[in-house]
Fold each of these.
Amino acid sequence: MEKTMFDFGFGPVPAHQHANGGGWVADSARVADTAFVGSEAQVYDEAQVYGKAQVYGKALVCGKAQVYDKARVYGEARVYGKALVCGKAQVYDKALVYGEARVYGEARVYGEARVYGEAQVYDKALVYDKALVYGEARVYGEAQVYDKAQICDKARICDKAQVYDEAQVYGEARVYGEARVYGEARVYGEARVYG
């Protein structure tokens, strides 16, 4: 029997259409029967999608990324590298999650945001617009990072804090409570901002 081939953008590889949704899945990837891969979505390389996870729209999951539980990746989002998206987390629009980043809980990453390195976004945190979260940064609780804000190194943004505009939080800085960091503010070192 002839193998079905599909070109994920780097030449044809053995692949199949997922029974639940019809999206293309490389034979090298693993997608559970319980997961959904929409007709225009793609899962390839050694990526894994399992549990009740959903990948749809024009989303791509590749590399050694894992999407599981009830997580959703959709729109034109990309999850790759060794990234994990799980729980009830959502990654959508043109967001990118890669490296060894983790997005979980009920967190959402969307717009053109990027979460990468060993960063983690979890609980009910939101990262959106063109925000960047990377290094070993953590964004959690009900925190929001948006506009062109950058959170990196070992910085922590939590509780109901918001970082936006072109603000940057880095080093081992902490922003928590209901604090707002915005404009072109720089918070770094071991600074603590509480509101």
Amino acid sequence: MSVVSLFGKKNIFFEEIREISKIFFPLSLAQVMQVSITLCANLALGGIGVEALASGGICNMLIQTGVVIVQSTISSFQSLLGQARGRGGAEGEAAAERFVACACAIALGLSGFLVALLVLIVLVCQAIVFETSMGQDALLYMSSAVFGAPGMVFFSVMRSYGSATGRSASILKAAGCGTLAYGVGAFVVLLFCRGMGQSILVMMGVVFSIAWSIAATMSFLTLDIFSVLKRSFVQHEWPAIKNSCATILHAGWPVGLGVASEMSANTLLAMFVGASGVAQMSVHQLCQSIELLTFMPSLAMNQTVSVRVSYFHGKGEHDRSRIVHHVAMVFIFLVALAEVATILLFHNPIYRASISDTGVVSARFGGGLYDMFLVVCAVVVFDALQAASSGALRGKLDMKIPMLMAVTSYWIVGFLFAMVLAQLTPQPVLGVWIGICAGVFCSACLQTVRFIRINSVGRAEMT
């Protein structure tokens, strides 16, 4: 290999680091700001008591699960948008705007279905899974918090659009407004409404819904999405719009199903932990909150890689796609190591800040809490690597095989390991998290190998 070629590759690597950083850092901050609303909700519930954290926390997790599945189904439009922009020209730009408009229309339809489904799930859990008091509290909280789900869905669509068009800073502003709204609302409720009994859960749910509605509205305004919708639905004929909607759903359903396999397995495991008692559920919620927060940079990298790979796939530059994937894997691995170091250094303050009744939990767990944090750290690293590879596969519009890999990893490996180990370990929640770790590790390995294989032959178009 010539010296010129070596320097050329070196320049490409540095250029890709720069381009990834321009998308990743603002988007990562926006992701963290977005999830901070849910985390603040869990902290506020923990401030009320362990019972409120256990019941309201699992509702927040159910809402987050439903939103992520819907978001993943729609988010394929981000790769389609990137490929359309990569092709360039007036036709490519028109197709890109059409995909955005169709994604908004699909989000509107799925949001109504999601609200009804979440309420139904809580009713079923109240009847057959939760303890009586936990079930009643969960239903009270969900009755008002569920209306934040549509705002979360629309915000997710706008976040994907903003990252694909290089406007992540606008999304960051919208997320900041939502977080500020929740912080102010929760402070007022906790300050003035503590003596209202179970009604405080309803009021906390109302604050949650209002905060997400504000975040979604601000994202619409800052990205000027209304002009895009007007151009798309007025200037384009119905057959073109119908075809774009069908393309998004065709590309997105395997992604949504793959994410659903992970989230549904985790949700069922959470219900299993909830049946083991309030202390177990509180620790599980704490670990979920930590993993959720630390996954936000990984999710930002997932979207960043999807944008970059889809762009070069549209241009037919498969070697550049490989470079994007390599840079992203190293980049997010270093970020994950920094997160792990933070968790291990500050695990005690995190624990005490998140759970008000620490005596109840400490009496049940003793010194076993540090083991929980170690397992969570392993999940953080493996989740970061699988996020980068799955984003690269999505950029190639390779959907169905990764979906089968996800189902295999999270159900056949992760879920079964979790259920068996929950019976063998002193703390069921520890066994559950070791199983989750095994599933994520399997997914990371399979999807990384898959991307290397398909990129080497320049293949994958709606597979």
Amino acid sequence: MADPMGAEIVVEQDAPFSTPKRPSRVVKPTSKVRDTARQLEDTAIETRRNTRQTTRNVPADGQIDRPTDARKSNGSGSSSGSDGRAMLQKALDLLAESRRETKRLQEALKEQMEMTKELQEAVAKQEETMHEMGKQMVEMKERMTEELQRAREQLETIATNAMDGPQRSYADVARLTPFLPHNDSRTLAAPPNPIDVFYCTIDVSRLGEDEARLSAGTIRATVENQVRSELDNPTWRCRAVTMDPKNPHRVRVTCRDESEHETVKRVAETKLGQGTRVLRDDLYPIRVDNVNRIAVLDERNEVRAEITKMLGRENDTEVAKIAWLSKRDVPKAYGSMVVYLKKRSEARRFINEGFFVAGGESGTTKTFERRDRPKQCYNCQQITNRKAYQCDRPQVCGRCAQEGHHHSACTGMIPKCIPCGGPHESYSRNCRKLYPSQHE
């Protein structure tokens, strides 16, 4: 009879079950699975300990009952096997639940990766859009720079035209703040710094009809080429070349300083050919009131011949010409005159100072407001916009109104006015048509 103590306890199990194939990816067990496995391990250790202790504590007198105890032990082993299978089944269930949770996590991770990919594509599209916008901004900036440059040139041209128009009155030339009396204790405000703009006016109206009409571009090219040669400066350019809006036959070349102005005038006079004229520089008039009549007019009520030089010396300036504004046939001791200066800065200076010396006495200065009057042709003496050199009518004397001679060679005794028919010269200030403001 075999030793019952050495008999092996065989635990019969149910039909073998198929263990599911573990995924290749290492799955980290959850805390719930780890707790369950730890409980199973503790239960198995406790079962083995109890079995060994029971085997050692069997009494000697109980050897006769070993078959019965063996059968009891077999029954107890069967019960322990059932508990082990239950625990193993529970572990398998937990493992299956862990796999399902892992699968859900994988699906969520896949969705997250797809969303990340879509976001990356959106970011790439946004970067491409920003790159295109950057290129458009650069192009727009270049266009705006070009337009701003053109606008600046146009404004400069307009300002030059406005400042240097040949028909400008002094009201347009030297419109400054009114001067304060000299007895004012406050400090006078400093006037703005005068900025002289020099320009050369070229008239092309005398070119023959069969000759090519010089344009502003042709004049610019000719002047620039010649000045570059004289100054040995291949990059020199005209500051501005503009057309007179009131006279399309006049072209103005704006210069930067006086030396450049002289060079341009010399080139225009010598290189532009016959038929072109370089007109005199514009003059800047100022009105002077309370002027001693004797200092300006002689015994015949005519302007003294040496008056311009005398006024220039007294006021330390260059006077081109003057004109008496008050009525000459009215014997007043003091009157008004207009003084034409060659420099705009000088005109501004006298307006700021408020005084102009004439014959040792100071007259008060103010803006000269030119009053337009009808234009007269000095060839036919008619009121028209034609110039004398443009008139195709016979020459008429401005004194006797007869054809064939000039008024400087007239021997007639009875004057006659062509515009109004009155008993005076055609150029007289007594003409109501030529000087309507004086007869209102």
